[in-house]
Design goal:
Mean pLDDT: 79
CATH class of the largest domain: Alpha Beta
Radius of gyration: 30 Å
Number of strands: 11
Number of domains: 2
Number of helices: 9
Oligomer: single chain
Structural class: alpha/beta
Length: about 300
């Protein structure tokens, strides 16, 4: 009788995929710091226990927004390492942790795809290497971006209500005042310099000349002196919403030139100069602008 002897195939074990994880929290709070630590520990444990994966690290951005990828150092390091061939798979808790902007998300995913790297979003159960992965990402990222806009609108509404009641979003330390829990309190030494700046400007001295004189006592630059002359705070009034965030995606601050309402709380704190002196300085600035505009071109 013939005997059949099987010869085992020489099958090489499949190479392990080098897997890394990305984690991010947007605010510096104890709760979110604990969340980031938990994300980091979870993914490291998950990868190390998976026989098909090789741990390639956890990239974690602390206290940064997901709306602008260029401001996330660990995110950018992750992309660079992927393109350098050090990583085969990236694990992320959710789409919103990876990016809030649809454009940023798709650009990053496509860069990784071109480098042969897939991204797996655990919460949404999306793998970018699957056929419908990119389509699903586009839809979900749009939802995440809308969520950012809705949150921004809610914050703006709350600021508006506070401004209407004369409550500032926050107070800043300015020259001439000390910032206390009770608001702005006059700093006697600095206040005398503020008065001198206004008096000298109205007397005809240039900002450059005033800056040279006051900088002997205080480290004030030309722009700082000019800012003092244009700051209504020295009249005791608090002007709110002088600037605003143009877009929740770019988060760029813009000077409010009438696009949004501004709110003025009169007698918010002790004045250093009179309203009449401030108005006289402003009129002098306006006269100079009008004079420059009238000059004929050569």
């Amino acid at each position: 009788m013939r005997e059949i002897i099987p010869i085992k195939a020489n099958v090489k074990a499949a190479a392990k995929k080098r897997a890394a994880a990305y984690a991010r929290v947007s605010k510096d709070t104890e709760r979110l710091e604990n969340s980031l630590s938990a994300q980091t520990a979870y993914f490291e444990d998950y990868i190390r226990k998976n026989p098909a994966l090789e741990f390639a690290g956890v990239y974690a951005d602390r206290f940064v927004s997901g709306t602008q990828s260029e401001k996330r150092p660990e995110f950018n390091r992750l992309i660079s390492d992927c393109e350098a061939g050090k990583i085969d798979l990236v694990l992320v808790k959710s789409v919103s942790r990876f990016a809030r902007s649809t454009l940023d998300l798709l650009n990053a995913v496509r860069r990784l795809k071109n480098a042969g790297v897939g991204v797996y979003f655990e919460k949404e159960n999306i793998n970018t290497q699957s056929g419908d992965g990119e389509f699903m990402l586009t839809v979900l990222a749009s939802f995440a971006q809308d969520e950012v806009r809705d949150l921004s609108d809610n914050v703006k509404w709350s600021f508006k209500k506070r401004f209407e009641k004369g409550i500032p979003h926050h107070r800043c330390k300015i020259f001439g005042y000390n910032l206390t829990d009770n608001g702005l309190v006059v700093n006697a030494g600095e206040a005398e310099t503020v008065k001198r700046i206004y008096t000298d400007f109205l007397a005809g001295k240039s900002i450059a000349e005033i800056t040279r004189e006051v900088s002997k006592e205080f480290p004030l630059s030309y722009s700082a002196v000019r800012g003092i002359l244009l700051n209504e705070t020295y009249t005791g009034a608090l002007v709110m919403q002088k600037s605003y965030i143009d877009s929740p995606i770019t988060k760029k601050h813009k000077i409010n030139k009438g696009e949004l309402a501004m709110y003025v709380a009169e007698n918010d704190h002790e004045a250093i100069i009179t309203r009449e002196m401030f108005d006289a300085v402003n009129e002098k600035f306006m006269s100079r602008r009008r004079s420059i505009c009238r000059k004929p071109s050569v």
